[in-house]
Amino acid sequence: MDNIRSQRNREKFSHEGFFLYIFDKKSADGNRKMWRCKRKDYSCRAWIHTDAITGDVCKNLGDHNHDSNAAKIEVVRTVTALKRKAVNTNEGTAQVINHTV
Asked: Which CATH number fits domain 4-100: 2.40.50.140, 3.60.150.10, 2.20.25.240, 3.30.450.40?
C-alpha cells in the first residue's frame, strides 16, 4: 500500500492507480479500514474497504461520478516523497529534488 499523505497529514490510498481515497475510519471490530473518494467536491459517493493489516481491497462501494486522473496520483506520490525526504535530511532543496525525482 502506498504511503501517500494529504496536506492535513491524513492517509491516502490509490486504488488501481486511477482514483485516490482518503482514510475515513476503521470498522467497529478494527479489521477493516474505510476510505472515501478524495473528490468530495464532486459529491462523489465511492468508498472502498481494505483489510487493516494487508491493505487488500475487500469491498468496493458506489460509482465515481468524475473522471480518473492517473497523472495526478503520480504528482501526489512524488510530492509526498519530497516532503518526507525534506523533513528527514539535511540536504539542500536542489539535492532533495534531484534525489527524489
From this structure: 2.20.25.240
C-alpha cell at 93: 532543496
Cβ density class 69-84: b for 16+ within 10 Å, e for less: eeeebeebbeebbbee
Question: Which tops the pLDDT comparison, 88 or 44?
Answer: 44
Say how far apart CA 27 and CA 37 lie, in whole Å: 17
- Closest Cα partner for 32 from 47, 48, 51, 5? 51
* pLDDT tens for each residue of 46-63: 999 999 888 889 998 888
Task: Locate 6 and state its grid cell.
Answer: 494529504
The answer on pLDDT for 42 being more than 60 is: yes
Query: Does pTM surpass 0.70?
Result: no
